[in-house]
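WARN retry 2 of 3 for item q-0093 after timeout on previous attempt; input resubmitted unchanged.
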Amino acid sequence: YDGHLSKDEMMDKLAGENDSALWLWRIVGYLLLCIPTFLLLNLGPAIMVDLAGFLIEDLTCGFINMSGCICMFMWLLSWVLTIPTAMVVIGLAWLLVRPLLGLALMVPSAILVCLLKGPVWKAWERKKEREAEKR
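OK item q-0093 returned
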């Protein structure tokens, strides 16, 4: 800096730079959680791919070709699964310093997991029914 700033102006400028750096690190950290989740879903068990196919088929009533949607669905699923994971990690870190804030961060992730459980469980049951019909 050129030295022509008052103390308050300098503090405001540094606070703005700190906020920018903080949000940049948050986005990078979220991507570092999301990308491995996406890779695990793509390279993971065939059950996840099979389940994703049935979820897409159920959501689109069979009008969309599964092969073109699996990668897009897995990317979306990885974003959705990363949110509660990130919230749990952040909540655990805050739990030691401020327990109420840590719990407040972890409760929404638990609610999200419970909300996601319903559609996934229903799709899994439909898959089992279809396999039983084929036999």
